[in-house]
Design brief:
InterPro entries: ArsR-like_HTH (IPR011991), HTH_MarR-typ (IPR000835), WH-like_DNA-bd_sf (IPR036388), WH_DNA-bd_sf (IPR036390). It holds the Pfam family MarR. By secondary structure, this protein is mainly α. Helix content is 69%, strand content 6%. The protein contains six helices and three strands. It has a three-stranded antiparallel β-sheet with strand order 1-3-2. Strand 2 and strand 3 form a beta hairpin. Helix 1 crosses helix 5 and helix 2 packs across helix 5. The protein is elongated. The N and C termini lie far apart (46 Å). The mean pLDDT is 93.
């Protein structure tokens, strides 16, 4: 008979597992809603949102802002351009992309659906709990990035 030994757990490991599970659940629910309006995934949504907030950007700028590699961002921009959601702006030495009217309309639909999904995700928590958790995780992320 083989005795199984318990694997020691730590609060740090529990935190990693919980954050990963929460991210997966929330992202899955948001991406489901985004797909309903024709947005392929969260990165596409955030890219559209960034272009909507900041205006025209290069592939390199988008990749850095979204923490994606340039090749992935180049493919994403090409796909969005083929779909008519963004366009390459003329007269710039480095290719800059901006939202089209169709892209702005898609972004508005995606934002509404994404916001609804997020509200459902946090419906079991009080507004104060959401603010506290968000603040704590923001500080934690800041510490991680400054320690890197």
């Amino acid at each position: 008979m083989t005795m199984r030994r318990a694997i020691p757990r730590s609060h740090e490991h529990d935190l990693l597992v919980l954050v990963s599970q929460v991210r997966s659940e929330m992202l899955g629910r948001v991406e489901h809603e985004l797909a309903e309006v024709g947005v392929e995934n969260y990165i596409v949504y955030v890219g559209l949102k960034r272009l909507g907030m900041q205006g025209p950007m290069t592939v390199a700028e988008l990749a850095a802002a979204l923490r994606q590699d340039r090749a992935t961002m180049r493919r994403t921009c090409a796909q969005l351009e083929r779909q008519g959601h963004i366009r390459r702006l003329a007269g710039t030495r480095t290719a800059r992309y901006g939202l089209t009217d169709g892209g702005r309309a898609l972004l508005a639909q995606a934002q509404a659906r994404g916001d609804q999904a997020l509200k459902r995700c946090v419906a079991g928590a009080s507004p104060d709990e959401v603010v506290q958790l968000s603040g704590a995780l923001g500080r934690f992320l800041g510490h991680l990035r400054s320690a890197a």
